[in-house]
Every structure is written in structure tokens, then in C-alpha cells.
Amino acid sequence: MPPKISKRAFDQTPDRDLCDWLNGCIRTSFEETGACSANASELEAIMTLPRGLRAVYSLCVFNGEVLNGGFQQYFTNSNGLLASAAVEACRLVGAHKHAEILDKGFRLWEAARKLWESAKGDEDQEERTWEIFETEIGPEFDTLDPAIDALRDAELLFDLLTDWLRRHPDECVTEP
Fold first, then answer.
1. How many domains does the chain have?
2. How far from 74 is each of 6, 7, 37, CA to CA, in Å?
3. How far apart are the first and last CA of the chain?
4. Helix or strand (DSSP H, E) at 5
5. Residue 1 covered by a domain
6. What CATH number should be reported for the domain holding residue 105?
7. Does the model's pTM come out above 0.70?
8. Phi, psi angle pair for 24, to nearest 5°
9. Tens-binned pLDDT, residue by residue, of the chain (176 aa)
10. Any idea what DSSP says for residue 133?
11. Residue 11 maps to a domain
């Protein structure tokens, strides 16, 4: 069940607060409904949201994790679960450079995940997989953090998201 977001509250929320307010509404709704409990998938829960709210949630999670600990943290904390939704959201709002960098991270993560899956249960193979990750994939991840940092002033993600939301209120307002 999507959060209750009225057109009036949406219109009265200042641009500088809009994304944080919407993200808070989503998180509160998830907590109240148990949508992201141990028995429910976060991805399944966000897929029930209107497109604009999916964009807000996936980009807020992405931004928070990357700011806190970088790309590797974003993927390891969530197992890359929301990465495809975040790439889609970046493209939706016109943050094409962010989408390109995030998509590269998603492809790196998928390559690493496949290596780990193929090594499962074989101690020697698991050790070799970690070595590959540390020497080949990890350094590639490390190039993504400065690339995103370089966009902080060039492609303002939350300004683009806010502009898109204001042009498409029907994609996040759930009540009259």
C-alpha cells in the first residue's frame, strides 16, 4: 500500500524539502505496513509504489549509501538489490551521467556476484574469488566514487529529481 500523500501537502512542501519529505513518507508507510520486514522484500515493496516514489526511494538509498561509504558499501549493504531501480530513476529524471556510473557499478557487482556464486562451497575457489575481487573488481569500484563526486556540482541529482516530480505530481500524489 503506497503512503498517503495529498496533492495539497505535496504542493506546499518547499522544493528543498520535497525529496526528504517524500522519502520519510515512504519509510513511515513501510514501517507501518511491515512492507520491508524480514518476510518481505524491499524490492517488492518499492515496486508497488508509483513511479515517482520509486525514484525518490531508490535515489535516496543510493545517495545515502554512497555518501556514507561509497559504491562498494551501496552494493554490499543491499546486495545490489535496488541498483537497477536507481539506474532507471536516474534515466527517468535526466541524470544520465549518474545512470552511466551506477550502471557500471551494477555490472561490476553482477560479475562479482556470479564469481562468488560459482565458488560457493569450494574453499580454494572462494579464496581465489576474493583475490580476483580485491585485485580486479574492487579497484574498478574505487574509480566510481570520484566519478560520482565529480558530478556533485555538474549534474545535481536531487534538483533533477525535484524538477521531475514537480512536472509529474500524479506519479507520487496518492490522494486528492
1. 1
2. 31, 32, 20
3. 16
4. none
5. no
6. 1.20.1420.60
7. yes
8. -60, -40
9. 678 999 999 999 999 999 999 999 999 999 888 887 655 588 888 888 999 999 999 999 999 988 888 888 888 887 788 899 999 999 999 999 999 999 999 999 998 888 888 888 888 888 888 898 889 888 998 899 999 989 988 899 999 999 999 999 999 999 98
10. I
11. yes
